[in-house]
Write a structure and sequence with these properties.
The structure holds two protein chains of two kinds.
Chain A: H1 2-27, E1 45-48, H2 54-64, E2 80-82, E3 89-91, H3 97-108, E4 121-124, H4 154-161, H5 163-179, H6 203-209, H7 254-263, E5 267-268, E6 271-272, H8 287-290, H9 324-330, E7 335-337, E8 341-347, E9 351-352, E10 355-361, E11 366-373, E12 378-381, E13 384-388, E14 407-413, E15 422-431, E16 437-446, E17 448-449, E18 456-457
Parallel strand pairs in A: 8-16
Antiparallel strand pairs in A: 1-4, 2-3, 5-6, 7-10, 8-9, 10-14, 11-13, 11-15, 12-14, 15-16, 17-18
Helix pairs in contact in A: 2-3, 2-5, 3-7, 4-5, 5-6
Chain B: H1 15-37, E1 55-60, E2 65-72, E3 80-86, E4 94-97, E5 103-108, E6 122-128, E7 134-141, E8 148-149, E9 155-162, E10 165-172, E11 177-183, E12 186-192, E13 198-205, E14 208-215, E15 221-228, E16 232-237, E17 243-251, E18 256-264, E19 269-272, E20 279-286, E21 289-296, E22 299-304, E23 319-325, E24 331-337, E25 348-354, E26 359-364, E27 367-373
Antiparallel strand pairs in B: 1-2, 1-27, 2-3, 4-5, 5-6, 6-7, 8-9, 9-10, 10-11, 12-13, 13-14, 14-15, 16-17, 17-18, 18-19, 20-21, 21-22, 23-24, 24-25, 25-26
Classes of the chains: A alpha+beta, B mainly beta.
Chain lengths: 458, 375
């Protein structure tokens, strides 16, 4: 009788495990699959601020003045070159903030996530079809994982998940485009020493941000390319639809979108996101600008495309932000988890249970967590994401339901590759940008069905 | 057949009136007989519709959807909506009206496209007008290359970008897609010949703009001629198919101008449309005559290629860019810019100019003219 009871109990256990597999398969939130050939096979989570974008705009200003991560080789601004073609000098890196804001709006409407959730919430990171990530749509270095074992590096994880690092990286890329002149790009502003303080002198750098492609390319940003439907064309505007200017992005080369947006900023809830700053485009009626843009000159390294500063020129009136803003935005994340040991079962040919580890940020700011397993057959999905500190706005998807500030890491096993038996493995959880590490111990148990029904061997 | 009256012996008959009268009677009976014998429907006699019957078709851009309108030329305010075309955020459709005026083909980025860009794969849609369901003819098309209709309105040419370059495809509206040509150069479909046997297209490269002819049946191509060593645009085939007008850049020591040029198929030569030193825009054929928008100094007018005045109204400020003539050839749709140059054109509206010198605003805002239709 007892034996029958024990056998029955084991049967129940087996069926519970099987049922658990099924439940996991049915009820586990299906992670969003990434675009093919980008860094992450499963898109990580990220965080979007409030609709007014103020926190992101403040972050852009910090990045533009190199006040976010100065000195960091990946996220800090490099020195910028200026001067004649054959006698270049450098100065500390600074980008006109209005241009960086305009680029961010053109790239993503200044969104870090897909917008599936409300403003001020965690959601899937924004990834475009060509692997552009986040607010500044960083594509360079984001088309394939560059870390060990086919994983993203911590830097790639930060670009995808944390708005500040994404903006900083976008600013770095723009500065890098600027510094591509004169070896690989023409100079705008040969009559003004190519000074980076002059907004018009960023013409070719902005063009390059979207691809320095010329006539005939599908991504052509050449202003005279016939792919732009109408000639002449009304200037572009990010502003209200009834301002009489153009709003159809398909009709403009990239640099005209950015310059137009800088001058005519978007409005959110009736308020412009920044003070419009006019930026002059090259006068294509004047041979000084049209001549260099001729087809015959569009040949690498484009040395015959140098142009004087489009007139009239402008300086960005945006003042440097308060340095205290940096700490306010980045905060001091503090990572914690509810459990540091979990159990996962798997069955070859059937699959694995998945345990969810919730990751909290009991500090401030946005925490990017990054998980690495000690064995390659441990599944982590996703292996990076965010957790939101109490100081950041957090909105709920449903009324009456608390918003989600925690990150969720699912841990399972690749049943086709795991060795038989029971063993412990470790998942190392790191808060990127800090020294915080938590080790999660995973007890992995193989469940095997043999011979007679109801008999299970562990 | 003439009937000869039998001469009388008595007084001489008035031969001519009798012959004419007899002829008329015979013709009447023959017509009546043909009606009885011929059961084919009688085709209406072709006629030029009066302006009152002609309608203007245009697209108004909207952030998430464009609206296609039809407006009577006689009273553009009484416009009606043909349909709305949803699209990706801030990327409008690129459309063209079929020559028979019964359908619109357009490229659109699907709504909800994440972080859309001009390079995002677009869809080619077909929609019958005035009322018809839309359907997708092809995917992965280049958004900004306007679909080109065949002369018979039974097929559309579109472009795709691939790793190898660019390809033009022919999509039958009844179904079926055929690749026509692939090149590393950027390809722009220009026009079909009247019988749809030839597709003309321009290839743009660092060598300039070259015109090619593709035999539709065999997909064989031949180089027709080089239009310019620079970029060209706004290519339009004459109704007779013997000339191609387009815009090209003209460089001089002190200025650069967009100039209307004409390629003559017979001679293979390119020549300016007119001898006027001015910025010219959007050459448009009116029968065998070429019309361009011209801006010289502060004065912007629509003139014939040879700078002959057309008697059309001129804007009080800014300049007009012709878009398309009505079938009657007496009215012209223009885009009127308020600015003073191509580099600073300012805002624009769509206007209708009549041969009597009238100027009627059709629509304002971000509007694209598609064409004329008549009932």
């Amino acid at each position: 009788m007892v034996g029958l009871l024990l056998r029955t109990t084991k049967n129940v256990y087996v069926w519970l495990v099987v049922f658990a597999f099924g439940l996991t398969a049915v009820f586990a939130a299906a992670p969003r699959q990434a675009s093919a050939e980008c860094v992450f096979p499963i898109i990580p989570t990220s965080y979007d601020a409030l609709k007014d974008r103020q926190m992101f705009l403040d972050t852009i200003e910090l990045a533009a003045f190199n006040m976010l991560f100065p000195g960091d080789p990946y996220f800090g601004l490099p020195d910028l070159k200026f001067g004649p073609r054959n006698s270049r000098l450098t100065q500390p890196g600074q980008i006109p903030p209005t241009l960086l804001k305009a680029i961010s709006w053109i790239e993503s409407s200044i969104n870090q996530t897909t917008g599936d959730g409300p403003w001020g919430s965690i959601g899937p990171a924004l990834v475009s079809f060509d692997c552009g990530h986040g607010i500044t749509q960083v594509t360079t270095g984001m088309t394939a994982p560059q870390g060990e074992s086919g994983r993203a590096t911590p830097e790639q994880a930060l670009v995808a998940t944390h708005f500040a690092y994404n903006i900083a990286r976008g600013a770095w890329i723009l500065a890098d485009k600027w510094n591509s002149a004169p070896e690989q790009r023409p100079i705008a502003g040969i009559d003004t020493n190519g000074l980076p303080a002059i907004m018009e002198n960023w013409y070719f750098a902005v063009w390059s941000y979207n691809g320095f492609t010329g006539p005939g390319a599908n991504r052509s940003n050449h202003p005279l390319d016939p792919i732009y439907g109408s000639w002449p064309r009304t200037p572009y505007s990010c502003g209200p639809a009834n301002d009489g200017l153009g709003h159809n992005r398909a009709n403009y080369p990239y640099q005209e979108l950015v310059f137009g947006c800088a001058a005519n900023p978007p409005h959110v809830d009736g308020k412009p996101l920044w003070t419009g700053t006019p930026v002059s485009l090259p006068d294509l009626r004047d041979p000084r600008w049209s001549g260099p843009l001729g087809l015959a000159n569009f040949i690498f390294p484009y040395s015959r495309m140098d142009i004087p500063t489009p007139q009239p020129f402008h300086l960005d009136p945006t003042a440097a932000p308060n340095p205290a803003l940096r700490q306010q935005i980045l905060g001091q994340p503090r990572m914690s988890v509810e459990k540091t040991s979990i159990k996962v079962g798997y069955s070859p040919g059937s699959g694995s249970t998945f345990e969810v580890v919730e990751i909290q940020n009991s500090g401030t700011g946005l925490l990017t967590w990054y998980a690495v397993a000690s064995e390659p057959w441990v599944i982590l999905r996703p292996y990076t994401g965010v957790a939101v500190g109490d100081d950041l706005p957090c909105e709920s998807k449903e009324p009456g339901v608390a918003c989600v500030r925690t990150g969720k890491l699912e841990i399972g096993i690749d049943a086709s590759k795991a060795p038989p038996g029971t063993r412990n493995v470790a998942v190392r959880l790191q808060a990127l940008g800090t020294n915080q590490v938590i080790i999660i111990t995973v007890e992995v148990t193989q469940v095997v069905r043999i011979g007679a029904p109801g008999v299970v061997k562990n | 057949m003439n009937a000869q009256p039998v001469p009388r012996q008595s007084a001489p008959l008035p031969i001519k009136p009798v012959l004419i009268g007899g002829l008329l009677v015979i013709l009447f009976f023959l017509s009546f007989a043909s009606l009885l014998l011929d059961t084919r429907p009688i085709a209406p006699i072709a006629s030029v519709p009066p302006l009152a019957d002609e309608r203007i078709v245009y697209v108004v851009f909207g952030r998430l959807a464009d609206t296609v309108y039809s407006a009577p030329a006689a009273n553009p305010e009484r416009r009606t909506v043909f349909f709305q075309a949803p699209h990706a955020d801030q990327f409008g459709i690129v459309a063209s009206l079929s020559p028979d005026g019964r359908a619109i083909a357009y490229n659109a980025l699907p709504p909800g496209t994440m972080a859309p860009s001009p390079e995002s794969p677009a869809e080619l849609w077909l929609r019958a007008i005035p009322a018809g369901e839309g359907r997708v003819l092809a995917g992965a098309v280049d958004l900004r290359v306007r679909p080109l209709w065949s002369a018979a309105s039974d097929a559309v040419v579109f472009r795709r970008s691939t790793a190898n370059g660019f390809s033009l495809y022919l999509s039958s509206i009844g179904g079926g897609i055929r690749e026509l040509v692939t090149s590393g150069d950027a390809l722009f479909p220009v026009a079909f010949s009247a019988a749809d046997s030839i597709l003309y297209y321009v290839a743009l490269s660092d060598r300039g703009s070259d015109l090619f002819a593709l035999a539709v049946a065999t997909a064989e191509t031949r180089h027709v001629g080089q239009l310019s060593q620079e970029m060209t645009r706004d290519w339009v085939l004459s109704p007779a198919g013997d000339r191609l007008a387009f815009l090209s850049l003209s460089f001089s020591a002190d200025r650069v101008a967009s100039r209307a040029m004409v390629f003559d198929f017979a001679s293979g030569t390119v020549s300016p449309a007119g001898g006027v030193d001015a910025d010219e825009f959007n050459p448009t054929w009116n029968g065998g005559s070429l019309v361009v928008g011209r801006l010289a100094g502060e004065r912007g007018v629509v003139e014939a290629g040879g700078a002959a005045p057309l008697g059309l109204s001129t804007p009080t400020r800014g300049f007009d860019v012709p878009q398309g003539w009505s079938a009657s050839g007496t009215s012209l749709i223009v885009r009127t810019f308020e600015g003073s140059s191509a580099s600073a054109p300012g805002r624009s509206v769509l206007n209708l100019l009549t041969s009597e010198g009238g100027r009627i605003q059709v629509a304002s805002g971000e509007v694209t003219f598609l064409g004329w239709t008549s009932p």
